[in-house]
Write a structure and sequence with these properties.
CATH architecture of chain B: Orthogonal Bundle
Number of helices of chain B: 14
CATH class of chain B: Mainly Alpha
Mean pLDDT of chain B: 86
Structural class of chain B: mainly alpha
CATH superfamily of chain B: ABC transporter involved in vitamin B12 uptake, BtuC
Low-confidence stretches of chain A: 20-24
Largest sheet of chain A: 5 strands, parallel
Radius of gyration of chain B: 21 Å
Radius of gyration of chain A: 20 Å
CATH class of the largest domain in chain A: Alpha Beta
Strand content of chain A: 5-15%
Oligomer: heterodimer
Number of helices of chain A: 16
Strand order of the largest sheet of chain A: 5-4-3-6-7
Shape of chain A: globular
Strand content of chain B: under 5%
Order of helices and strands of chain A: HEEEHEHHEHEHEHHEEHEEHEHHEHHHH
CATH superfamily of the largest domain in chain A: Nitrogenase molybdenum iron protein domain
Helix content of chain B: over 70%
CATH topology of chain B: ABC transporter involved in vitamin B12 uptake, BtuC
Largest interface: A-B, 36 and 36 residues
Number of domains of chain A: 2
Largest sheet of chain B: none
CATH architecture of the largest domain in chain A: 3-Layer(aba) Sandwich
Structural class of chain A: alpha/beta
Helix content of chain A: 40-55%
Distance between the termini of chain A: 31 Å
Low-confidence stretches of chain B: none
Chain lengths: 351, 339
C-alpha cells in the first residue's frame, strides 16, 4: 500500500537520485534536508557521521576511503568492527552529545562529509565554517529511500555497478517476501505495536518492514507525514485500545543495555488485557540501529514475515537467509549468526 | 477561607478548593480508550466484587485501576507539589522571580537520572537516583552558603553555581553515554506522565504528602518570614530554623515530583502568581490555593494531552507552551504580580 508519506519520500528520493549527474564531473545533489550540495568530481576521502551511510560504504567496498567516523559506528556498533576492523583505528569526530571536532575534520581533510538529517543545524554549520561539502542523508524508514541512498552513494564514490547489484538483490528479496501476503486485506494483517527508542511508549509512525512482512503498524501515519518525523509518544491506554496482535521491542542493543525488554513487557500488568500479552507474542526486532543496516533490515523483514504468517513462510530458515544476505552485502560468511549471539536473539535462529 | 474581603473572593476560593475533586472524577473518564461513566462505575464495582459484574471487560479494569487512577493521582500530587514549592520559595526569598528549581533541584535530579541510566543500569532506578541528587544539590547549596544561608542573595548565587556545576556534570555523562541510553534520558528530561504507575506513586506520594503538610502548617510563618529578618525575630520566630524547614520541605516535594515525572516547566512559577493575583499575598491562603490550582491545572493539562489525540506531547513541554501565554494575559489584565 502506497501511502502519502511513502510517495513523498519516493518523489524526494527520485529528485535526489536524478540530481546525481555523471560520474567524474562535479555534481550537485539535493540532500534529505532539501539542501543543494555541490559534490567535487573526485571523492577519495570521506568522513561519515551517518552510520547508515557508513554501512552502505562498507557494502559497496568503499571503506578504505573513510578517514573518520561518528561516535556510534566507531565505538558502539558491534557489527561494524567485524566488517571493517581497520575502522577501530579511525578518528572519531562526533560525540553522543552531538558535538563535532572541527579542528580534527580540517586535519582529516575529507572531500565530502555525510551527516544525519536529524541534527538540523550541523550540516550547514560545518559546511559554512570549514568549506567542505556536507550531505545530510537518511532513508527515513523507507525501502525506496534506502535504495536511492545506495544508488546515490554508489554514484558519488564511483561504485555504481556494485550499487546496482545490491539494489537489484534487495528489490528481489523484498519482492519475494511481499508476494505471499501482497493480496491480504488490511483486517487480515496482524496488528503490530513497535516499542522503539528505549521506551514502551515511543513508537515509529512509519516502519516499512512491518507492512512488507504482511503486518500492520498500529501507529502508522499517526502524525502527518509532512512533519517529517518518524516517531512519536503514545499512552499505555492507547496501546490497549489498539489491542495489537504483536508487540515488537527494538532489540538492536546489547542485552545489558536494554531498558525495555520482552520479559518486562510481558510482565507489565497494565497491558494484561492486550492480545499480544495474553498470547505471549512479544518479540525483539532489530529496529533502527542508528538508522538502518541495509542487510539487517532485509533479514528483519523476513523474520517479521515468518512471525506474522508462519504458515506461509514455514520453510524459511532465518539464520541461513541472514547469513546469505550478510555475505552478499559484506562479503563475510557467518556474521549474522555472530550478530544473533551478541544480541541474544535466540528466537530468530530457532529452527 | 477566612479573611477574604468579599463573598465573591470567598466563593472563588471555595470553588478552587473543590475543583480538584471534580477534575479528579472527570479525568478518570478521559483517555484514548472510550469508556462511558457507567462502564467505569461497573469497572470499580467489578474490581471490588468480581462476581457482581462478570461481563465487564478486563481492559476496563486495567485502564481505570492500573493506568488512569495512578496517572491522575500523580498529576494531582505533582501539580500541588510544584506549585506549593514555588509559592513557599517565592515568599521565603521575597522574590517573585524565584521558582521551585532555583536551588539546583532540576539539575541535580537530571544528573542523578543520567547517572543511573548511563552507568548504574538497573541497580539504582533513575527515579531514586534523581531524588537523591536533587536533595544533594540543595544540600550542597546550604552547605556552601553556610552561615550566609540567611542572606538570600548568597543562597541564590550558590544555587546558580550548584545548578551550573550539576549541568556540567550532566553534559559530561551525556558525553560518555551510549546513544540508546541518551534517547531514554532526553525523554525523561522532557517530563512526562505517560508511564505513570502505582510504583511511582508508592515512591513519591508519601514524600510529597509529608512535604505539603509541613508547608501547610508553616503557611502563616511564611508571612512572617516575608518580612525582614529583624522584624521576624522581634516576633519570636527562629528565622534560621524556619527557613531551613521551608527549604527542606520544598526540596523534598520538588525532588520527589521531579524524580518521577521529569522536569515540568513553569508550573511552580505561574500558579502562585495566579493565586496572588486573585486573592492577595497572604500565604495562609496562597499555600492551600496554590496546591488546589496547581493540582487542577496539571490534571487539565494531562486531560488535554490524553484526550485530544492518539499521540502524547510530553507534559513538561505542554505546561510551558500553555502556561506562559495564560500568565501573560492575566498579567496584562491585572497589571500586578506581587503584593
Amino acid at each position: 500500500m502506497r501511502t502519502a508519506s511513502l510517495r513523498i519520500i519516493i518523489i524526494f528520493s527520485s529528485i535526489l537520485w536524478a540530481a546525481a549527474l555523471f560520474p567524474g564531473q562535479g555534481q550537485t545533489i539535493k540532500d534529505s534536508l532539501g539542501r543543494s550540495v555541490a559534490i567535487p568530481p573526485q571523492v577519495d576521502r570521506i568522513l561519515s557521521l551517518q552510520p547508515e551511510i557508513t554501512r552502505i560504504l562498507a557494502a559497496l567496498g568503499a571503506t578504505e576511503r573513510l578517514v573518520g567516523l561518528d561516535y556510534f559506528i566507531g565505538r558502539e556498533d558491534h557489527l561494524f568492527k567485524v566488517l571493517f576492523p581497520k575502522g577501530t583505528g579511525l578518528p572519531v569526530v562526533s560525540m553522543p552529545d552531538e558535538s563535532v571536532n572541527r579542528e580534527l575534520i580540517l586535519r582529516l581533510d575529507p572531500d565530502l562529509i555525510f551527516a544525519s538529517p536529524t541534527e538540523l543545524q550541523v550540516p550547514d554549520s560545518i559546511q559554512r565554517s570549514l568549506g567542505i561539502p556536507v550531505a545530510a542523508l537518511a532513508s527515513l524508514g523507507s525501502f525506496e529511500g534506502l535504495l536511492k541512498e545506495i544508488e546515490l552513494v554508489g554514484a558519488l564514490t564511483g561504485f555504481r555497478k556494485r550499487a546496482d547489484e545490491l539494489g537489484m538483490y534487495f528489490r528481489e528479496k523484498i519482492r519475494s517476501i511481499m508476494e505471499p501476503t501482497a493480496g491480504l486485506a488490511v483486517e487480515a494483517r496482524p496488528a503490530a505495536y513497535l516499542a522503539f527508542w528505549s521506551s514502551l511508549v515511543r513508537t515509529p509512525v512509519f516502519y516499512e518492514p512491518v507492512q512488507a512482512a504482511g503486518g500492520r503498524n498500529v501507529a502508522h501515519n499517526l502524525l502527518p507525514p509532512h512533519l517529517g518525523t518518524i516517531g512519536t509518544v503514545v499512552s499505555v491506554e492507547q496501546i490497549i485500545k489498539w489491542n495489537p496482535d504483536f508487540i515488537l521491542v527494538q532489540g538492536s542493543f546489547f542485552p545489558a543495555e536494554r531498558l525495555v525488554t520482552v520479559d518486562g513487557v510481558l510482565e507489565d500488568k497494565r497491558l494484561s488485557s492486550v492480545k499480544a500479552i495474553q498470547q505471549k507474542r512479544v518479540h525483539y526486532t532489530l529496529g533502527f540501529w542508528y538508522w538502518w543496516d541495509p542487510a539487517g533490515v532485509l533479514v528483519e523483514t523476513m523474520y517479521l514475515a515468518k512471525l506474522f504468517h508462519p504458515e506461509k513462510f514455514a520453510g524459511l530458515d532465518i539464520e541461513e537467509a541472514g547469513n546469505e544476505i550478510y555475505e552478499v552485502f559484506y562479503g563475510k560468511r557467518g556474521i549474522f549468526t555472530d550478530l544473533m549471539k551478541a544480541l541474544d536473539f535466540r528466537e530468530w535462529t530457532e529452527k | 477561607m477566612s479573611g477574604l474581603k468579599n463573598s465573591r473572593s470567598r466563593g472563588l476560593a471555595i470553588f478552587l478548593l473543590v475543583l480538584p475533586l471534580f477534575l479528579f472524577l472527570l479525568s478518570l473518564t478521559v483517555g484514548a480508550y472510550r469508556i462511558s461513566p457507567g462502564g467505569l462505575f461497573k469497572a470499580v464495582l467489578s474490581a471490588v466484587a468480581p462476581a457482581s459484574h462478570p461481563d465487564v471487560p478486563e481492559a476496563y479494569r486495567d485502564i481505570l485501576l492500573r493506568i488512569r487512577l495512578p496517572r491522575v493521582l500523580l498529576a494531582m500530587a505533582v501539580g500541588a507539589a510544584l506549585s506549593v514549592s514555588g509559592a513557599s520559595l517565592q515568599a521565603l526569598f521575597k522574590n517573585p522571580l524565584v521558582n521551585e528549581y532555583i536551588l539546583g533541584i532540576s539539575s541535580g535530579a537530571a544528573f542523578g537520572a543520567a547517572l543511573s541510566l548511563v552507568f548504574l543500569g538497573r541497580t539504582l532506578p533513575p527515579q531514586i537516583a534523581g531524588f537523591v541528587f536533587a536533595v544533594a544539590a540543595v544540600g550542597a547549596v546550604l552547605l556552601i552558603s553556610g552561615k550566609a544561608e540567611s542572606h538570600f542573595i548568597s543562597l541564590l548565587l550558590t544555587g546558580i553555581i550548584v545548578t551550573a556545576f550539576f549541568s556540567a556534570l550532566l553534559s559530561l555523562v551525556e558525553f560518555f553515554a551510549s546513544p540508546y541510553v541518551l534517547q531514554a534520558l532526553f525523554f525523561w528530561l522532557m517530563g512526562s506522565l505517560s508511564l505513570a504507575s502505582w510504583k511511582d506513586l508508592y515512591i513519591s506520594l508519601p514524600l510529597i504528602a509529608v512535604g505539603l503538610l509541613v508547608l501547610y502548617l508553616l503557611r502563616w510563618r511564611l508571612n512572617v518570614l516575608s518580612m525582614s529578618d529583624e522584624e521576624a525575630r522581634s516576633l519570636g520566630v527562629n528565622v534560621r530554623r524556619e527557613k531551613i524547614l521551608v527549604i527542606g520541605a520544598a526540596t523534598l516535594i520538588t525532588a520527589a515530583a521531579t524524580a518521577i515525572v521529569g522536569i515540568i516547566g513553569w508550573l511552580g512559577f505561574i500558579v502562585p502568581h495566579l493565586v496572588r493575583m486573585m486573592f492577595g499575598a497572604d500565604n495562609r491562603r496562597v499555600v492551600p490555593l496554590s496546591a488546589a490550582l496547581g493540582a487542577s491545572l496539571m490534571m487539565v493539562a494531562d486531560d488535554i494531552i490524553r484526550g485530544v489525540s492518539s499521540f502524547e506531547i510530553p507534559i513538561g513541554i505542554f505546561t510551558s507552551l500553555v502556561g506562559i501565554p495564560i500568565f501573560l494575559i492575566l498579567l496584562k489584565k491585572t497589571k500586578k504580580v506581587w503584593l
